[in-house]
Amino acid sequence: LTPRASRLTPHGFTYIGLLIFIALIGVALAGTGMVWHTETIRAKEAELLFIGHQYRGAIGRYYESTPGSPKKYPRSMEDLLKDNRYPSTKRHLRKIYRDPMTGNTEWGIVASADGGVMGAYSLSEQDVLKTANFSLSDQDFEGKNRYSEWKFTYAPPPEGGADPAPKPDTPPNQ
Questions:
Q1: What is the value of pTM for the model shown?
Q2: Cis bond leading into 157, ω under 30°?
Q3: Is residue 78 helix, strand or coil?
Q4: Is 98 helix (H, G, I), strand (E, B) or coil?
Q5: What separation in angstroms does the CA of 9 have from each of 3, 4, 13, 15, 53?
Q6: 3-class DSSP state for residue 174?
Q7: Which residues pair with 83 in a beta bridge?
Q8: Alpha helix locations (H) across 65-135?
Q9: Number of Cβ within a 10 Å radius of residue 74
Q10: Residues 6 or more apart from 53 whose CB is under 8 A from it?
Q11: I need a surface site. Which of 8, 103, 118, 169 has the fewest CB within 10 A?
């Protein structure tokens, strides 16, 4: 007979190695999921900025093409789809876009002094990822914490065509 100790072989090491391998794969997949989620939100932010610029531009075109004086903002978002102030069909916006953050076509409205629509914003209360490095037209978004604080408004240029700011190396006119 052989002693019992000589018959003992290491069992279970393959099983433990497989469990460690599965745990490492799980950690890697969790990290990939977090990166994927962040990239999805960044893509939605970029889409929100694009759609917001479309709304801002359409409101500006509607306002600037007002026949006669005084100029007026649209009464509703639907006025951007079909401008009835002209005999022929004039469209400032192709469609009412879906808010990428909420998935709905409902938007917050920024009302003008005359009750018209001077801007739009997302109704999402989610925290933003992008808080800096906005384009010149979106600099007001810097430091905002929620998407609902990103207001895409059209403000007409000051009347009389104010002179542009002087260049830093040129003295102002006296």
A1: 0.75
A2: no
A3: helix
A4: coil
A5: 13, 11, 10, 14, 71
A6: coil
A7: 90
A8: 78-81
A9: 22
A10: 137, 152
A11: 169
| 59's tokens | 């409101």
3-state secondary structure 33-64: HHHHHHHHHHHHHHHHHHHHHHHHHHHHHHHH
Residue 120 makes CB contacts below 8 A (sequence gap 6+) with 52, 55, 56, 59, 77, 107, 108, 109, 110, 151, 152
Helix (H) or strand (E) holding 7: helix 4-7
Does the structure show a pLDDT above 70 at 146? yes
Average the pLDDT over 23-48 and give the result. 93
CA dihedral sign, ordered 122, 126, 127, 129:
negative
Distance CA 148, CA 106 (A): 12
Contact 129, 145 (CB under 8 A): no
